[in-house]
Amino acid sequence: MDDNSLYCWGNNDYGQLGLGFSCSSNSYINGCNGNSGVSSPSLISFPLGRTVEAVATGWRHTCAILDDGSVSCWGYNGNGELGVGNISTGSWTFSPNSVLMPSGTSAVSISAGQEHNCMIVDDGRAFCWGDNSYNQLGASGSDRNSPHQVSGTSLYISVSAGGYHSCAITNLASLQCWGRNYERQLGTSLQWGGTYSTPQNVDLPLGTSVNSVSAGDEHTCSVTDTMKIYCW
């Protein structure tokens, strides 16, 4: 909102609305609508009077950048998507929890994928956490329950997390993607069906500068500085 407060509504079976409770089917307690959700926008409470600069919604979780550059997440945590250092669920996940931020950093961009998140911090590095079944965190290995730096040396200004892949705009206005490439959502000529733990340069026309990017479940679109839209 214009006063930097945050409201959420909809499905709340895993506490992804951040209201301090979850909703089950046929429940009308705490304003639940009998169908596992809350039907009207509801105010989210943050500690110490913190306000919200940006919000990102995943499948069953939500994350927000607060006014001090910190990040809080809430909802499902079965893949570590809350970034709090553990992989577990329970009523404690129904309210905002502070992400374990890299030392001395502030978040400037955040995006929630299906079961993972990525953020850009103020020094241009990208960090991701949560489900890593297709290397969508920009690293190989298991799920990560706290932010893990994306591999490579590029610096970034914006990021978008998709279903099982992630894309980010570099400080040179180029575009890189990583993770699952089963439907060629990485936008490269790499082998169909592979997964990539390192950022791959998207094959946009030579000289193209990217202004924005959005990663969907299995596709990606970007807008260039000439207002052209490319999708793959």
Distance between the termini: 33 Å
Largest sheet: 4 strands, antiparallel
Quaternary structure of the protein? single chain
How many individual helices?
0
Percent of residues in beta strands: 35-45%
Shape: globular
The sequence of SSEs as H and E is: EEEEEEEEEEEEEEEEE
* Gyration radius, in Å: 18 Å
Q: For this structure, what is the CATH class? A: Mainly Beta
Overall mean pLDDT score?
97
Summarize the topology.
Layout: E1 7-11, E2 37-43, E3 52-57, E4 61-66, E5 71-75, E6 97-98, E7 107-112, E8 116-121, E9 126-130, E10 144-149, E11 156-161, E12 165-170, E13 175-180, E14 195-201, E15 210-215, E16 220-224, E17 229-231
Antiparallel strand pairs: 1-2, 3-4, 4-5, 5-6, 7-8, 8-9, 9-10, 11-12, 12-13, 13-14, 15-16, 16-17
Task: Explain what the structure shows.
- The chain has one domain: Regulator of chromosome condensation 1/beta-lactamase-inhibitor protein II (Methylamine Dehydrogenase, Chain H, 7 Propeller), CATH 2.130.10.
- Helices cover 0% and strands 40% of the residues.
- A hairpin with a 3-residue loop joins strand 7 and strand 8.
- It is mostly beta strands.
- The chain is globular, with a radius of gyration of 18 Å.
- A 4-stranded antiparallel beta sheet has the order 3-4-5-6, with no helix packed on it. It has a 4-stranded antiparallel beta sheet with strand order 7-8-9-10, with no helix packed on it.
